[in-house]
Amino acid sequence: LRCGMADIQQLFQLGQQVQGRLQQLQIDLAGRTVEATAGAGLVRATVDGQGRLRAIVIDAEAFEGRDAEFLSDLVMSAVAEAQRQAADMAQSEMRKVQPGPAGLGL
Question: Is the CB of residue 2 less than 8 Å from the CB of residue 63?
């Protein structure tokens, strides 16, 4: 396998393009949100595309006749599901940015 200067320059440019697209993707993901619920909608968690928690909404009905441990479980469940969905979304978007063998001319 021979690799000339033109090939090295092309690989370097491709690397820079991918890096730029990844940086833009991180910005885009930070601006997107995912919402998940638990307890038939009693608790809603919203996270951004990077998985950071942005909001928790707890319906007043969640406090009626329930203990703190139950409510804590609902909150944890909603947050975990929202973060899982955000990670799936980010992974899907990353696959679109990364060049495959065709992008490398292999």
Answer: no
